[in-house]
Design goal:
The protein is α+β, with helices and mostly antiparallel strands. It contains 16 helices and 33 strands. Helices cover 27% and strands 27% of the residues. It starts with a helix and ends in an 18-residue tail after the last strand.
């Protein structure tokens, strides 16, 4: 029907009105444009004209041509050159289809240079979805966004809105203070008056007394402003209380104080495992900024142990594993925005104790146990097609191994081959679809964990046929060599390991006889381990992943309003 109407329009047949834009006339069918926009419905009903010519101002002939084509075809071509004028016109004429098309186009072109301008633009022409995307982009990439001139054009209220959010992704509050000084210096005569209200948005207690004394109090604007003195003194009082009551919780709370932590950009998810004699559905999250573990309301759709977990494009995928003595080939994912579960395509093989990783947007499932043999088969999953595809088999069959990606390749190390822990390791190149053996580890390992960091592969803990391990070794691809590092505090196997902000976090596992709730963190720069808060759950066969950069991180992080002041 739409195609027929467009043919009549192009032929100028049965037109019952004319739109006059400047000196250009567009013959149209009123019923077609009325279906497209309430503006045209009202125009044709209420505007009386004897010659059926309807004059429209504030829209150029070129833009009106695009709008009319959309009314007849349902499609619109949005470009960088027309998107602004097209969205303005569509907003004025209340054409929701074009507004959505323009919003989608702008969303796809969000970048560090334009995200602030787009966020400001949505204040004039409301698009809640686009506004949220632009604001989240600013929050997520703030430390890069401030390297571009757009941020210097923010109003004081806009800057306050950004700096005041818990979700602002900054590694250090010193960055926030520096941003304020740079923003003021861009237009000092008008902006110096705002120093106090802006300083109140800096979480000063998350810096240090030395920094405040040497960098904040010495600043001329702060020195000359009594309100700033009050803010600094209040921060000192809280920092003193934090030191004095380090091991005793106070009745007061961190909420609405300069000591309030921001939301983490990344959190660790730990799921499933064998709880006594059955697989668990529990999910626990670690918030490293406040050193707290918390159970979340989401539970696994089905209980799983010895499974794999990865985070990709807003979803957490749970792959393979076992439940009730059954090895699984199934995969489910949790949409973190909606908290809804989805069943995805099954793997080609049942895989318990598998190794799982992500490379170039694909999920790779390697080896594992199908109930009979240690598998050497490998497959990858494409989220866009929801299909698993077999890739070249590994050189060795492996279960309870561990893998990581580095420089476009996958490295898998150790694991059980038959009934013995292995020292062997191999590397997969997706461009050639080939596996290559690399130099062996110094120690045989199974039920260990492997992670890539700083151009190296780290193999940590595990089991060596005799005892649980606390040793660590690192592999350098350039030299094809392994080197030993500082061991963990305690030996553990079948544990969880993740990296956040250059720190290695380890939790759970067992040393054969006892399970461990103890968690610890490793600093690769100092080659040292230290303890962190113990987890609430420690089950054999748990799986973990890092969830990063989601707009609703508040749903999963430890609640900031309930943090006690220590």
């Amino acid at each position: 029907m739409m195609e027929t109407h467009n043919k009549h329009h192009l032929a100028g047949q049965f037109c019952d009105a004319i739109l006059q834009i400047e000196d250009v006339q567009f013959p149209i069918h009123r019923i077609i444009l009325s279906d497209c926009s309430r503006y045209f419905q009202a125009l044709f009903v209420h505007q009386i004209t004897t010659d059926k010519v309807f004059h429209i101002t504030l829209v150029s002939p070129d833009i009106m041509q695009i709008i009319i084509e959309f009314a007849y075809t349902g499609s619109v071509t949005v470009t960088k050159d027309n998107v602004h004028d097209l969205m303005v016109a569509a907003d004025m004429l209340n054409i929701m289809g074009i507004i959505q098309a323009c919003s989608n186009f702008i969303s796809e072109h969000l970048c560090l240079q334009n995200c602030i301008g787009i966020w400001q633009f949505t204040d004039i022409f409301p698009s809640s979805e686009l506004q949220c995307k632009a604001f989240h982009y600013i929050m997520e990439h703030f430390e890069q966004v401030i390297n571009f001139k757009e941020y210097l054009q923010l109003s004081v209220m806009e800057l306050i809105e950004i700096l005041g959010k818990d979700a602002l992704n900054v590694k250090n509050e010193r960055t926030v203070f520096d941003v304020i000084l740079r923003w003021i210096a861009h237009n000092p005569k008008e902006r110096e008056q705002h120093i106090a209200v802006l300083l109140s948005e800096v979480r000063l207690c998350k810096t240090s007394i030395e920094y405040i004394e040497n960098n904040v109090m010495t600043n001329q604007l702060v020195k000359l402003n009594p309100e700033c003195h009050e803010i600094v003194n209040h921060s000192f009082q809280i920092m003193s209380s934090l030191t004095k009551h380090k091991h005793k919780p106070l009745k007061s709370c961190l909420s609405n104080t300069p000591a309030r932590p921001r939301l983490p950009y990344s959190i660790i998810w730990v799921s499933g495992g064998m709880k006594e004699s059955y697989a668990s559905c529990d999910i626990e999250v670690y918030d490293h900024l406040v050193d707290r573990w918390i159970y979340i309301r989401d539970k696994l759709k089905d209980p799983r142990a010895d499974h794999g977990t990865v985070f990709l494009d807003g979803y957490v995928y749970f792959v393979g594993g076992s439940k009730l003595m059954e090895n699984l080939d199934s995969m489910v994912r949790l949409d973190l925005r909606t908290h809804n579960w989805q069943e995805m395509m099954y793997m080609h093989y049942q895989r318990c104790n598998l190794s799982l990783t992500i490379l170039n947007g694909f999920i790779y499932a390697l080896g594992g146990f199908d109930g009979y043999v240690c598998l050497n088969t490998a497959e990858r999953y494409c989220p866009e097609t929801n299909q698993w595809t077999l890739i070249a088999p590994m050189i060795k069959g492996r279960r309870s191994a561990s893998c990581a990606t580095l420089d476009g390749k996958i490295y898998i190390c150790g694991g059980l081959t038959r009934s013995h822990s292995s020292r062997t390791a191999e590397c997969y190149d997706p461009e050639t679809n080939q596996w290559t053996l690399i130099n062996r580890m110094n120690i045989s390992r199974s039920q260990h964990r492997v992670v890539a960091y700083n151009n190296q592969i780290y193999a940590i803990g595990g089991f060596s046929n005799v005892n649980p391990l606390k040793s660590i070794e690192t592999y350098m691809p350039l030299t094809n060599t392994w080197s030993m590092l500082c061991p963990m505090c305690i030996p553990r196997r079948n544990f969880c390991l993740e990296v956040i902000e250059d720190q290695f976090y380890v939790v759970g596992g067992s040393n054969i006889r006892t399970k461990s709730y103890h968690a610890e963190v490793y600093d690769p720069h100092t080659d040292r381990w230290c303890s962190i808060s113990d987890s609430k759950m420690s089950y054999d066969g748990m799986s973990s992943c890092v969830v990063s950069g989601i707009p609703n991180m508040v749903d999963f992080a430890f609640p900031r309003d309930s943090l006690p002041l220590f």
